[in-house]
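User: Good morning. I'm curious how zinc ion would be positioned relative to this chain. Could you predict the structure with it bound?
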Amino acid sequence: MQADNQASTKHIQVGLAERSYPIYIGQQLLPQLAALLPSLPQQICIITNATVAEHYLATVQAALPAECTVIVHYLEDGEHAKSLTSYGAVMDALIDASFNRDCAILALGGGVVGDLAGFVAATYQRGVDFYQIPTTLLAQVDSSVGGKTAINHPGGKNLIGAFYQPKAVVISIDCLNTLTPRDFACGVAEVIKYGIIHDAAFFAWLEQNQASLAARAPAALVHAISRACEIKAEMVAADEREQGVRALLNLGHTFGHAIEAECYEDWRHGEAVAAGTVIAAHFMQQANELSGADYQRIEQLLQAFELPVRAPLLAESRWQQRMQRDKKVQAGQLRLVLPTRIGHAELRKVSDWPAVWAAIAALSETSQ
Ligand SMILES: NC(=O)c1ccc[n+]([C@@H]2O[C@H](COP(=O)([O-])OP(=O)(O)OC[C@H]3O[C@@H](n4cnc5c(N)ncnc54)[C@H](O)[C@@H]3O)[C@@H](O)[C@H]2O)c1
Ligand SMILES: [Zn+2]
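Assistant: Good morning! Here's the predicted structure, ligand included:
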């Protein structure tokens, strides 16, 4: 076997005092779950969906200690599963099975499963143990780490939720082999984000290792996921409740959320973030705060992973309305995460809407 096809297991610690927890990243970790999670309780509820279960549920079940009582709860596949209705159905299942306060919730799936399962864990009997086994690249580098859990309300995404940290995160990169190219690319958009906001050397590594990452070579995956998780762990440890540095993880997201909300049937989160990141970079280049060379490197790296770098055509008023609903807006003022160079970004108040609109308009589809 080539060196590129082997990767050793990494252990990253999220430092949150008594709520600190490990992230394990490696190959074939699902069969090793019992050893990685030695304090699993007697009652375990696995939350997953049929798409993920088909590939990985049997391995997870076989890896759990034989004496445990294990129930499996299936969500529907898709963002609509993050609903009050499916939340209620999991609660019913836990109560029907007489699960007590010592049970554990195990999330096996992408961000949808992880977000709902985390909120279930945060609230069942005022909080029970929670373990993340993320199976999409986006969940592995972003949603499974940091303790943001939520479900959606008809009035908006993630409106009901809690900060609730898992006890451990187990990232088995083999799970990515069954992921669609589109879902894989969406995860890469978030990986690239970490390079832009915090780590120029990592960004350069991504440029140099594009081909092996795109081919999902194990060593490249373990490195990319580990570095992303290290950066996220550092920011979460410094600012668990997103009052400062953690907000930088929202690079491209204010623009991206507007695209997602307007075009939810055609655009995935990672794709919208990619286009949003290019708009943020263009805005800074126009203000002479980001070099043209850095702007081009950002655009080219996203494009290399076949991510969109142009926004859909939407009316200015739609953009403005959607962006005003961003969680970072304070007293009606936009606050945007803006890169000043590859490896550094800042959260800035922005009052010059015409300049923001100029960046959006310059990068909307018809202007290509
Ligand atoms: N909590 C956070 O901090 C945070 C951060 C970012 C995103 N999110 C949330 O994450 C969600 C998006 O997550 P996502 O992109 O993982 O979407 P997802 O969970 O819908 O997964 C995408 C698709 O891949 C399938 N899938 C999952 N694992 C697979 C595998 N190994 N092989 C084949 N198919 C697989 C899923 O069934 C689904 O169809 C959104 O709801 C978003 O709000 C949360
Ligand atoms: Zn994101």
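The first strand starts at residue 10 and ends at 14. The pocket of nicotinamide-adenine-dinucleotide (ligand 1) is lined by residues 49, 51-52, 55, 77, 79, 82, 109-113, 115, 135-136, 138-139, 142-143, 146, 148, 158, 175, 178-179, 183, 186, 269 (CB under 6 Å).
Let me know if you'd like a different ligand tried.
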